[in-house]
Design brief:
By secondary structure, the protein is an alpha/beta fold. It has helices spanning about 20-30, 45-55, 60-65, 75-85, 120-145, 145-150, 180-195, and strands at about 10-15, 35-40, 95-100, 105-110, 170, 180, 210-215, 215-225, 240-250. A hairpin with a 2-residue loop joins strand 7 and strand 8 (about 215-225). This is Aste57867_20064 protein.
Length: about 250
C-alpha cells in the first residue's frame, strides 16, 4: 500500500494517479501553477501507472539491463515526458514525489527551462545526469550483494556546504569545464556520501544518488527484491527493484 504524502509536501494533490502518461500531468500543470505534485491513495492496482512514469529514467541502469528488460526507446520517452512537463506553463520547479509511509520512494524534480534556453538541451542534460546517478548506484548495490542496505543503518549526518540548488547558473571548475550549480551540488553530495560508504563503491566508477525535494536532500538507493524485507515491498512492477529512502538531509 502506498501511503499519502506527509503534510510538509504541499500544493497540488492527485487523489487518483494519472493514467494517460505525460499528457494528463501536463494538462494539470497547465491549469494550476503548482510547485509540487502529490500522489495520494496509491494502491497495488493504480500504483503501476505512476511507477511506470517515475521509473522510465532508470532504463539505462545496469541492473535493469542485467535483468533482461527491453529498454528500447525507454530513456528517450522519459526525456520527452520531462520536456513536456517543463513546457507546461509553469514558472517554478515541480517535484513529483511518492512516499511509502513517511519514506520517500521516488522523487523527480522538473525545472522549467529559461526563455533563452533550448528546451531539449536543458531538460535532456539534467535528466541524463539523474539517470546516471540512479543507474550507477543500483549496479553498485547489486554487485556487492546488497551490502548497501546493511551499511545504511549507521549512516551519519552529512554536511553539504554548497549553494542553494534553486539558484540557477553555471560555474567553471578547475579543469575549465562549465558545470551547472545543480551538477556541483550533486557532486558535493557524492563526495560526502562516499566518505561514509567507503568499500561499498568507488567514486571513480560508481555514483551516489541524492535528490533535492522541498528544503531537504534525500539520499536514495535502489535494492534488488532479494535484499528487501518482503513485508515492505510496495510494488513489484518496477523491474525487480524498489526505491528506498535511507537518509534525509537539511538543506545547507
Amino acid at each position: 500500500m502506498w501511503a499519502a504524502l506527509t503534510i510538509d509536501v504541499q500544493d497540488a494533490i492527485f487523489t487518483e494517479p494519472p493514467t494517460r502518461g505525460s499528457a494528463s500531468i501536463r494538462h494539470e500543470l497547465a491549469t494550476a501553477n503548482v510547485a509540487t505534485l502529490r500522489f495520494e491513495n496509491l494502491t497495488a492496482e493504480n500504483a503501476p501507472a505512476v511507477a511506470a512514469l517515475l521509473d522510465r529514467g532508470l532504463a539505462a541502469s545496469l541492473l535493469v539491463q542485467a535483468a533482461g528488460q527491453d529498454t528500447t526507446n525507454r530513456l528517450e520517452n522519459f526525456r520527452r515526458m520531462c520536456k513536456e512537463l517543463a513546457q507546461a506553463e509553469i514558472e517554478r520547479p515541480v517535484s513529483v514525489v511518492c512516499l511509502c509511509g513517511t519514506a520517500v520512494v521516488a522523487a523527480i524534480l522538473i525545472t522549467p527551462p529559461k526563455p533563452s534556453d533550448d528546451n531539449a538541451t536543458s531538460t535532456t542534460t539534467e535528466w541524463s545526469a539523474s539517470n546516471r546517478l540512479y543507474g550507477c548506484l543500483a549496479h553498485a548495490l547489486d554487485a556487492h550483494g546488497g551490502l548497501g542496505r546493511r551499511a545504511t543503518a549507521n549512516l551519519p549526518e552529512l554536511s553539504l556546504t554548497t549553494v542553494d540548488v534553486a539558484f540557477r547558473g553555471s560555474l567553471v571548475d578547475s579543469k575549465g569545464v562549465q558545470q551547472s550549480l545543480y551538477q556541483r551540488m550533486i557532486a558535493a553530495a557524492e563526495v560526502e556520501v562516499a566518505k561514509h560508504w567507503e568499500g561499498i563503491f568507488s567514486l571513480s566508477n560508481e555514483v551516489s544518488a541524492a535528490r533535492h525535494v522541498q528544503d531537504k536532500w534525500t539520499v536514495v538507493v535502489r535494492l534488488p527484491f532479494s535484499e528487501f524485507p518482503p513485508e515492505l515491498i510496495v510494488d513489484k512492477t518496477i523491474y525487480g527493484a524498489v526505491n528506498v529512502c535511507v537518509h534525509k538531509l537539511d538543506r545547507p
